[in-house]
Amino acid sequence: MTEDSPKRQNAEFPEGRYVNYFKIGYNEFEFILDFGQFYPDENQEAVFHTRIITCPFYSEALLKTLSDSVTRYKKMFSR
Fold first, then answer.
1. Measuring CA to CA, which residue among 15, 16, 17, 26 is closest to residue 55?
2. pLDDT tens digits, residue range 4-58?
3. What are the phi and psi torsion angles at 64 (to 5°)?
4. Alpha helices of 1-79 — where are they, by DSSP H?
5. Distance between CA atoms of 34 and 24, rounded to whole angstroms?
6. pTM for the full model?
7. How many angstroms separate the CA atoms of 53 and 14, rounded?
8. Distance from C-alpha of 76 to C-alpha of 71, rounded to nearest angstrom
């Protein structure tokens, strides 16, 4: 780790999970983001495995970060 690297409380990365289905809810104070998997050919409901609860401020930051990343991705990989 270099001097300029941010320090992490845990040296391991979180477990990676595949997501192809999202559900988003909100109330006056928070956003609830559910992530899961859904395969319509299997005739079953979506299976959610991760829930993130955050405030509107950080939800907007996530929206901007994701939007910027998709824009850069399109510039890099679009044909």
1. 26
2. 555 656 668 888 999 999 999 999 999 999 999 999 887 788 999 999 999 999 9
3. -65, -45
4. 56-77
5. 6
6. 0.74
7. 17
8. 9
